[in-house]
Amino acid sequence: MDPLLKRRGFATLLVEASKVANKLTNIEFAPDIISRSCRWKEAKYAATSLCVSPRADRIKVLYNGLPRPKMELSMAKGISTPFDCAKHLSQLLCDRSVIALVNGSPYDMHRPINDDDIHNDPTEANRAFWRSCQVVMAAAVESAFKDKFRMRLLSFHETSLQSGSFVADFRMELNSKSALEGIVNWSPTECELRALSQVGQIIASNAKPFEVLDTSPEETRNILQDAYRLACLRKEAGSTSSTLYRVGNYVQVHTKTPMIANSSLVGRFSIVSLRLLGRLAAEYVKPNDSPYQLVYRAQGVAMPTAFLAHFTTFDVLIRRAKQPNSTVADASNYVEPL
Questions:
Q1: In 216-309, at which residue ranges do the beta strands (DSSP E only) sit?
Q2: Looking at the whole model, is its pTM more than 0.70?
Q3: pLDDT higher than threshold 50 for residue 274
Q4: Domain count across the chain
Q5: Domain containing 165 — which CATH number?
Q6: What is the domain range of residue 63?
Q7: Could you read off the pLDDT of 34-67 as tens digits, one per residue?
Q8: What pLDDT sits at residue 8?
Q9: Where is the TGS domain (predicted)?
Q10: What CATH number corresponds to the domain at position 95?
Q11: How far apart are CA 252 and CA 254, in angstroms?
Q12: Boundary (domain end) residue, out of 70, 102, 123
């Protein structure tokens, strides 16, 4: 069978990862993902421009926490972020802050502030970490496969840390029935999963911020330009607006917020399974698109950089995470049996 992933040697199916790299390299994304990133930057610039025309309003931000309790900062409304506030306080706060609390609510470190109170608290950080790892996993899977076996995100599934893994579903679009028949019996080897995990590890280690852009449904459609993801998103989202996150050149929408401040906060990272669920349901296939589309489920596990653990401890977490996550049903409405 023709290799699926872009890299060879270390894993039969991956892009250019013949061996574990001695130094980090940039991950190459497909042109449609790069175009999505460019549209995101244009929308972000437009949103920022509205806040400085005719001039930027100032707000007083009261910071409650170490190292300077009840510190008052004068910041630019709609432009300054909790991360900008941290820059005025200490480098350690910049490096280690995961999320912020604004008026008691969890808040992205790179989301512009419109209110007058901010302090840091770890209680919501674990959930933000899990969501952020989902985005890193999606970026890894979407960038790793060859164009003729292209993988694109369908849906993120909400799972607890106690369940042992974060989960996302992807679709693989194939050109012909023979290509579909040739791939249905494929499942990644341990070597291939390690190579796929390495892509995610590189994305995390490149230390990119999780940039934030709140958008209307129309803006979301214009930036994503992915009808399949948008169809699933309508079922996921409970509000009329969406939040688009950008880490490096990868842009994706997530219905839950916030995310962690920076990808460097992700330490050990592993994509532990990628299994076939079935065919993409006929009602989801768009006109003029290939009807030969498969749905795969990826599961992963990760640990924060701050958590130092022996590799055998992480191996125990990997073995547990390989089991199908019982909190997520296999029978999604966009999947039909082969």
A1: 242-247, 250-254, 266-280, 293-304
A2: yes
A3: yes
A4: 2
A5: 3.30.980.10
A6: 55-123
A7: 999 999 999 988 888 877 766 677 878 878 777 7
A8: 40
A9: 76-118
A10: 3.10.20.30
A11: 7
A12: 123
